[in-house]
């Protein structure tokens, strides 16, 4: 039996009893209680029950079992029940219904917590595009500020692959299948670095810019829609015809969208891999080439595969390269005007 000074712990069990100002707790020591109370709820769930955690905000989590139980800034609150706390010990007692001694022992590693019944997974919501804004001024300002040529922006708006969302004024980049049906969309914040795929998006059908000729043999592959638009803009600014190639965004470095596009466009025989000039991008280009080589049909058809990251002195991705190029052109113009 262990003696603990009264008031030293706020969550001693109801079964404890006091004698002459000292609380007696059977089964656990003061050191064990101290150790158990060191666990905050977020750290505990990340370590022992990661399947329970679900991000619901930039700095906030909830649990999959109780979506009204929010965790943020070292505290948790189960709003539907009106209870909360700071520690994992509070959680095991108040939410999981464990007795005090059992909860302390679980957190000290002496006993695993009782298995919690996991809820049946919710069926995925049907894919739905966000509502469009009638005046896409934020989107136009943002993309032109990133150096994207107005002609490309208007072409994407016309084809239904780009618009501004009514709510939050995000850029919405849309991916469509061969029938023109929207199957994918990703959001890009116009005021901050926010980015997110729309729920239930099919990542095989990512954002793309199609060549003027449906039988075009060339495809440029980028990580993001902004980079794909930057590649086309660079071609236009250099005096070339950007419609002489297809461009596609992967939404990362996974090969799904590229493989789907190649199977949907059987005339493509040349692929330029234009991923970021960093470790992830370099490894991604290797994986993309391997994915083509391992596909029985594509390995026979795609005869040229280029690894074409942007030059390192101009940033890691093609939008940084584009912005540096535009700045250099402006600098030369200023110098010429100053020399007159």
Count of DSSP strands: 17
Structural class from helices and strands?
alpha+beta
Choose one word for the global shape: elongated
Q: Count of helical segments?
A: 11
Contiguous low-pLDDT stretches (5 residues minimum) are: 1-24
Portion of residues in helices? 25-40%
Q: Strand fraction band?
A: 15-25%
Query: At CATH's second level, what is the architecture of the largest domain?
Result: 3-Layer(aba) Sandwich
- What is the total domain count? 2
And the CATH topology of the largest domain? Rossmann fold
- Rounded average pLDDT: 88
CATH class label of the largest domain: Alpha Beta
What is the radius of gyration?
Answer: 28 Å
The side-by-side strand order for the widest beta sheet comes to 4-5-6-7-8
- Give the SSE string: EEEHHEEEEEHHHHEEEEEEHEHEHHEH
Key traits:
340 residues; alpha+beta; DNA Primase, Chain A; Rossmann fold; 2 domains; five-stranded antiparallel β-sheet; five-stranded mixed β-sheet; 11 helices; 17 strands; 20% strand
Describe the protein in words.
The chain contains 11 helices and 17 strands. It is of the alpha+beta class and 340 residues long. The protein folds into 2 domains: 75 residues, Zinc finger, CHC2-typedomain (DNA Primase, Chain A, Alpha-Beta Complex), CATH 3.90.580; 203 residues, Rossmann fold. The strands form 4 sheets. Strands 4-5-6-7-8 form a 5-stranded antiparallel beta sheet, covered by helices on one side. α7 links the parallel β14 and β15. α7 runs parallel beside α11. The longest helix has 22 residues.
């Amino acid at each position: 039996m262990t003696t603990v000074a009264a008031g030293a712990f706020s969550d001693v069990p109801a079964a404890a009893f006091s004698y002459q100002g000292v609380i007696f707790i059977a089964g656990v020591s003061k050191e064990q209680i101290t150790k158990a109370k060191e666990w905050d709820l977020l750290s505990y769930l990340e370590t022992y029950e990661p399947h329970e955690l679900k991000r619901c905000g930039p700095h906030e989590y909830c649990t999959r079992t109780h979506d009204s139980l929010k965790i943020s800034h070292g505290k948790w609150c189960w709003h539907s029940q009106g209870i909360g706390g700071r520690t994992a010990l509070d959680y095991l007692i108040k939410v999981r219904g464990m007795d005090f001694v059992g909860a302390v022992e679980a957190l000290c590693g002496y006993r695993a917590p009782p298995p919690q019944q996991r809820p049946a997974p919710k069926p995925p919501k049907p894919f739905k595009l966000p509502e469009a804004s009638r005046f896409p001024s934020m989107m136009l300002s943002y993309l032109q500020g990133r150096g994207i040529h107005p002609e490309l922006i208007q072409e994407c708006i016309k084809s239904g692959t780009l618009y501004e969302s009514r709510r939050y004024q995000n850029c919405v980049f849309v991916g469509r299948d061969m029938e023109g049906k929207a199957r994918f969309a990703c959001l890009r914040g116009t005021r901050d670095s926010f980015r997110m795929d729309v729920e239930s998006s099919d990542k095989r059908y990512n954002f793309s810019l199609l060549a003027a000729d449906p039988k075009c043999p060339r495809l440029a592959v980028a990580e993001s829609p902004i980079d794909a638009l930057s590649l086309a803009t660079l071609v236009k600014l250099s005096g070339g015809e950007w419609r002489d190639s297809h461009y596609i965004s992967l939404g990362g470095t996974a090969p799904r969208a590229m493989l789907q596009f190649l199977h949907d466009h059987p005339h493509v025989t040349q692929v330029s891999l234009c991923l970021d000039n960093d470790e992830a991008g370099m490894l991604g280009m290797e994986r993309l080439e391997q994915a083509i080589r391992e596909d029985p049909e594509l390995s026979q058809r795609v005869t040229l595969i280029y690894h074409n990251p942007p030059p390192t002195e101009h940033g890691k991705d093609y939008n940084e390269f584009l912005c540096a190029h535009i700045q250099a052109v402006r600098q030369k113009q200023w110098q010429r005007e100053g020399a007159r």
